[in-house]
Specification:
The chain is an alpha/beta fold and 574 residues long. It has a five-stranded parallel β-sheet with strand order 2-3-4-1-5, covered by helices on one side. Strands 8-9-10 form a three-stranded mixed β-sheet. The protein is elongated.
């Protein structure tokens, strides 16, 4: 038994392709090389490039066998002659496989140059297969240039690399290049199924699909993982076995987590995340699974139930389709962007759980977004009166709304005054007024501390000191004009809005009173910059936008209206 274990050969080596027909996913390369052998147009140097484990070195060995086979050159080497057998095991004296990572110096290349002039020992050609050729030093590349361009007739070079961009152009121009693509998951599953059958084992289809997705297009990675799982799980390979060994969540757990997100239940979302982490789940793998899940949502939203390339099991696609139909495509894309950004931030970070929690909370608060085409249409409309009824959704990262205590409506003391449009109360007028305003300005008004009606025909809105920025934004002359116009439209008669701080400072100065000249503060500098930059002024007028922050030197560097193009530059071209 001990001897049998010592002689065990891993699956990836035992099932290595031995013929051009055995290459999976690289049929274009196989066909080109077969045609070259059949027509006698075999080049003296080839460069195979592609991801790891897709068949580059295997193809190089098959080509070497085809050239030196006793029945060759032939596109179908016999795999029985001494040359074919020796090449397959890597022991042929005329076919040298060189690791470019460990034999990368100029002295190693000089040794090759000294050998190429000698005839092959028993085969037709002396063949040099250099793997990871991009690892050679620049002096080593320079040393091989002349030999590579005009080698002896009995010498062939085959280079393999995963990073072709690091190979000098002088080398590339002397080789015939073949690009190896990643292998589709369905092709990997088919091969794994055949291997499991030959190994006299059993495996669930879902388990094989999980292995294929984990391999990310690499057949060698898939075969190595299958070998490990068969040793771990015995003769019966189940999806639970794969999940346990890889530290990934089952499809049901991912679905439940996504359902909590779509329900906007932040508490349940965080509880599920903590439960998965406490059970030994790899959070990095969970993030990858969520990215795949949101990718499936995107595909279903665009192409429906028959969308190709879905990673979610078929039994869960009905639920997935309902989730995709419950939100807009823009919302799905934004959620996918949030997850990918979180994946980028996790690299080199020790706060993986915190980043995951932040990403999931953002997904919970994500609302339907307005298309950029609609925003562009608003920019071309007049600032007041012609705005469409649809309003911009408040961003998920915006400020928190006022507390319930500050939301309460305060009625002014003293004698009652008539409300707009007849006997309606302030409780009914205020929501209508906010709906009429819409956008950022409406969200700023909601930060009020109180609202009341004062005679004659004046709506008084007061702000607490902590919402001073909201008060200043609403007090802007352009926004103040919008507030008055909206209230007059709602009331059907002359009404005005008066904005106050908690200290009672009104934005409506007494008649014939000269305006104050305060020092240039932060908010005043923002307003000055808005007047100087047409795009900011246009956004403020059309969308009710508010400048949140500016660089210190922005105001000084901003061009004046005299030197800046007019607002016509925002109009669409014919």
């Amino acid at each position: 038994m001990a001897k049998a274990k010592e002689e065990y050969t891993v699956v990836a080596r035992r099932y290595r392709p031995q013929q051009f027909d055995d290459l999976i996913g690289q049929e274009h390369v196989a066909q080109a090389l077969r045609n070259a052998l059949a027509s006698g147009r075999v080049a003296h140097a080839y460069l195979f490039t592609g991801a790891r484990g897709v068949g580059k070195t295997s193809t190089a060995r098959i080509l070497a066998k085809a050239l030196n086979c006793a029945k060759g050159p032939t596109a179908t080497p016999c795999d029985k002659c001494s040359s074919c057998v020796a090449i397959a095991t890597g022991d042929d004296i005329d076919v040298r496989e060189i690791d470019g990572a460990s034999n990368r110096q100029i002295d190693d290349i000089r040794a090759i140059r000294a050998e190429v002039n000698t005839r092959p020992t028993r085969g037709r050609y002396k063949i040099y297969i250099i793997d990871e050729v991009h690892m050679l030093t620049m002096p080593a590349f320079n040393a091989v240039l002349k030999t590579l361009e005009e080698p002896p007739a009995h010498v062939k070079f085959i280079f393999a690399t995963t990073e072709v961009q690091k190979v000098p152009i002088t080398i590339l121009s002397r080789c015939q290049r073949f690009d190896f693509g990643v292998i589709h998951a369905d092709r990997i599953v088919t091969q794994l199924r055949s291997i499991v059958k030959d190994e006299k084992a059993k495996a669930d289809e879902e388990a094989l699909e999980m292995i294929a997705r984990r391999a990310a297009g690499s057949m060698r990675d898939a075969q190595s993982l299958l070998d490990q799982l068969l040793a771990f799980g015995g003769d019966k390979l189940t999806a639970e076995t794969v999940q346990s060994l890889l530290g990934v969540a089952g499809p049901e757990r991912v679905l439940a987590l996504a359902q909590a997100v779509f329900s906007q239940d932040a508490k349940a979302t965080l509880e599920q995340l903590d439960s998965l982490a406490d059970n030994g789940l790899q959070l990095g793998e969970l993030l990858d699974q969520l990215i795949e899940y949101w990718r499936d949502l995107m595909l279903l939203s665009c192409a429906g139930k028959e969308a190709p390339g879905l990673s979610t099991p078929a039994r869960q696609r009905e639920t997935l389709l309902k989730q995709a139909g419950s939100v807009s495509l823009d919302t799905i894309l934004t959620g996918l962007d949030i997850l990918i950004q979180a994946k980028t931030k996790t690299r080199g970070s020790g706060q993986l759980r915190t980043l995951m929690q932040m990403a999931l909370l953002r997904l919970c608060r994500l609302e339907d977004l307005v298309a950029i085409t609609q925003v562009a249409a608003w920019l071309q409309q007049s600032p007041v009166g012609d705005r469409p009824a649809t309003t911009l959704a408040r961003p998920a990262t915006g400020l928190a709304p006022p507390t319930e205590a500050k939301k309460k409506v305060e009625l002014a003391a003293g004698e009652p005054a008539a409300t707009p449009s007849g006997p309606k109360t302030i409780e009914t007028i205020w929501p209508q007024f906010l709906a009429e305003i819409g956008g950022v300005l409406s969200s700023q008004l909601q930060r009020k501390s109180g609202v009341a009606i004062a005679a004659p025909n004046t709506l008084v809105v007061s702000f607490a000191p902590e919402y001073n920025s909201a008060y200043e934004h609403c007090s802007n002359p352009v926004n103040k004009q919008r507030l008055d116009a909206a209230l007059q439209k709602l009331a059907g008669q002359a009404w005005s809005v008066r904005l106050e701080t908690m200290a009672g400072v009104s934005t409506s100065p007494a008649p014939n009173t000269p305006p104050p000249t305060p020092a240039m503060g932060r908010r005043a500098r923002f307003q000055e910059a808005v007047q100087k930059v047409p795009v900011l002024k246009r956004a403020e007028e059309k969308l009710g936008a508010m400048v949140i922050d500016l660089d210190e030197d922005f105001g000084a560097a901003a061009p004046t209206p005299a030197t800046q193009p007019a607002a016509e530059e925002f109009e669409p071209e014919d």
